[in-house]
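[09:14] KT: can someone run the structure on this one? pasting the chain below
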Amino acid sequence: MSFTVAIVGRPNVGKSTLFNRLVGASRALVDPMPGVTRDRITGAARLGHLTFTAVDTAGLDEGPPESLEGRLRQQTATALAEADVALMLIDAKAGLTALDRHFARWLRRADTPVILVANKCEGLVAESLASEAWGLGLGAPVPISAQHGEGLADLAEALLAHMPPAAGEEPGETLDDQPLRMAIVGRPNVGKSSLINRLIADERLLTGPEPGLTRDAVAVAWEWQGRRIELVDTAGLRRRARIEPGALEQLSSKSALAALRQAEVVVLMVDASAPLEQQDVTIANRAAEAGRALVVAANKWDLVEEPQAAMALLRERLDHRLPHLKGIACLPISVRTGKNLDRLLPLVAETHERWSTRIATAPLNRWLADATAAHPPPMVKGRRVKIRYVTQASTRPPTFVLFVSQAGALPETYLRYLTNSLREAFALDGVPLRLHLRTGKNPYV
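[09:31] RB: done, structure tokens below
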């Protein structure tokens, strides 16, 4: 979609609520506390027969350029410059504020066309606000209620005046055309946003020394060697015990975990000075449980004094704490210096290819015969469990079905043996594998 609509305004006027309404999903966090949104969030939006790209932005606030408020305002300024039209939201219930007037003057100086939108216009509030809003110099406000979906037909009509005739007529995407979805996850302050900025060579995401800057899961479209990639930045994940129930951080964590489950490849960023702490292991297990391909990136490698010893320790911890992901891809990087960043995407592509592997039935059953001959299944009540047949049911992750004489009789230790043998035989290092057992029908029952 070539037509872009940026949603701007001061904090807590309902920008994220409108964004979620337009994209038809809870993509942006919504909370009564002002200033929840920080990074620009994009999504495919639909309003009636119109289709376009919607961009949610941080609330406009005053502050020097180097402050958090100033950096947030720069993010909004970039979104405004890249948009074809902007929607400036004001709160109809609260009325106009000095901040609304200040940023209306700022928007009037921009080259991007602006549509004034009065949100929270339930009932007759809109009529009392209309005459006052004319003073902003942005025309008559379009009254809507983003929460209740009221007034969206009028908003579509206002947008239609700025949209090219072909907008909304683009052909649908096939599965093969869809980008590789790659989520960057990890503990707070390990450099997730900085990594994406470095990869795309643009300060697209807000970064800084303050912990917890990223709150929403932010998707960034990118192209690498002709291949479309969707990079997803996520909030830092702390241990659940440290997060207060009902706090904004809890919403951010849920958003990050949802992005992890929806990704194809998960890049787990760890701090090279404290590699693979318990929370890193927990995140890796979440990815494995969701069946996602996993790559570990050890950031801040430029600060490591003994690289060989540090790499050996990290590899040992990976093998010991994540035995079910034996051979997981691990890369030492430095976002600050750019060390090994040119190797990250080839490693991701290679892992994604293994994750998508499909194995023919004949070589699978040859492997099964060799594996059971080398280490036969156990005896149960005087009779040996027979594994008659194996086939691959699906990919992403590779999933296999084994037909056995007594499905419940195979112990976990033997299933681990089969999994590791299968991984080694078909070069499926570091990819989560799923083995399902099925028992054939007994013709004498």
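[09:33] KT: thanks! The longest strand covers residues 387-394.
[09:34] RB: yep, looked fine to me
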